[in-house]
Amino acid sequence: MAVNIQAIRGMHDVLPEQTPLWQYAERIIREVLSSYGYSEIRLPIVEKTELFKRSIGEVTDIVEKEMYTFDDRNGDSLTLRPEGTAGCLRACLEHGLLHHQTHRLWYYGPMYRHERPQKGRYRQFIQLGVETYGMSGPDIDAELILLMHRLWQKLGIREKVRLQLNSLGTIAERLAYREILVAYFQQHKDGLDEDSLRRLDTNPLRILDSKNPEMKDVIANAPELMAYLGIDSLAHFKAITTTLDDLGVAYEINPRLVRGLDYYSKTVFEWVTDELGSQGTVCAGGRYDGLIEQLGGKANHAVGFAMGMERLLALIDWNTDSLFSSRAVDAYMIRVGRKAELQGMYFAETLRDKIPALKLQVSADGGNFKNQFKKADKSGAQYAIILGDDEVEREEIAIKSLREDIPQQTMTQVQAIDFLQGSIKSNKQLMDGYTMSLKEKNSNKTRS
Ligand code: ATP
Ligand code: MG
What we know:
By secondary structure, this protein is α+β, with helices and mostly antiparallel strands. It has 2 domains: about 20-170 and about 230-315, Bira Bifunctional Protein, Domain 2 (BirA Bifunctional Protein, domain 2, 2-Layer Sandwich); about 325-435, Rossmann fold (3-Layer(aba) Sandwich). About 40% of the residues lie in helices and about 20% in strands. The chain contains 15 helices and 16 strands. The strands form 3 sheets. Strands 1-5-6-11-10-9-7-8 form an 8-stranded mixed β-sheet. It has a 5-stranded mixed β-sheet with strand order 13-12-14-15-16, sandwiched between helices. Helix 1 runs antiparallel to helix 5 (about 140-155) and helix 5 (about 140-155) packs parallel to helix 9 (about 230-245). The radius of gyration is 28 Å and the shape is elongated. The N and C termini lie far apart (about 60 Å). Magnesium ion binds near residues 61 and 260.
């Protein structure tokens, strides 16, 4: 027997019982984004390798060791996108969208990084990316934070995540600080691990980001960037924290927060949780004005963030018994006999015309009544719609509840349409009621 082929390590299937959870979260995300006037952009999954090298920076974990890079048949080096910021900016530059314009954009889809798979860390994972262009002031930085804050509230996880904020200043300020930081680490070389020693020359700020517990003290005592920021950078940062204070959004200032990617300037932030072990960052982002020029555009402004969907979903309390095991199928049509098969197919199409919300499965591969009733039951449907030769002869339909002990009813096609329409309506009311109570439950939690 042939050996089964399995999925690639760190790349996962989302099975049908899980997809309603994804769809629920995706719907809330779309609603929140559109309530702030953000538009979707759809981007290729593969880009030229050069794009990521130039934007993410050669000396980052992503470019050094995590990218899925391969040669196209014509010899071009291509890469499965490890993140979306570079591709989004590439697209906007390519289509001239950044010329005297502002944009508020989002994209959603898989990203690829060759990391060591573990809970909350995969080789294919789904990100929501949000990017804004053309706005220099602190308002837009604050808006993004408010948007995320609203999202957590709607998803009922507000109390599980904390906002961490820092400012990396301008590039000039960062360069000046870099020298001071290098001098400090030079004095404490003994306390640095191999990775950090290497970064001392190439990307010393990243040493602050190290998760090696043995370096905790060296890092804690390092000089802080905030002390070297100029008036403008400080004012920008202050304006953000003032807005957050005014609107009651709590935050912590984390002077060690430098983010993994090279392209940030001024604002950086992360939403972190204590519930997912070391994969505790759910969402991260900041301002990256410098990247636009780095990719060949005119000097401009950009702020954005990316959120990991798997980590987000892991934080939500799912009430799987009710909403999320919601029926995939409302009705199952049983057809026995040649005429019934034909007429059933025809009636099923009529039902789909008349009741677009009805989820209807039609029997396939024949079988006797007993056999088809089994399949109907297995489908999870609430009703069996039954067509045999008798029904065809009398131009009737029989409907039997598969979930309640009530007698089978025989009716005309028109009556059957009315009946099913009514049952869909009352089901929808039940579901709306449930969604409401989930929302209430979540907002109560937020308040307490
Ligand atoms: P980490 O420090 O956890 O490696 P990162 O700084 O590499 O994260 P970003 O590049 O900022 O992550 O990506 C934004 C978000 O995407 C992360 O906060 C996380 O939620 C998610 N993410 C990143 N890498 C992975 C991965 N390998 N698997 C699942 N989610 C991921
Ligand atoms: Mg990473």
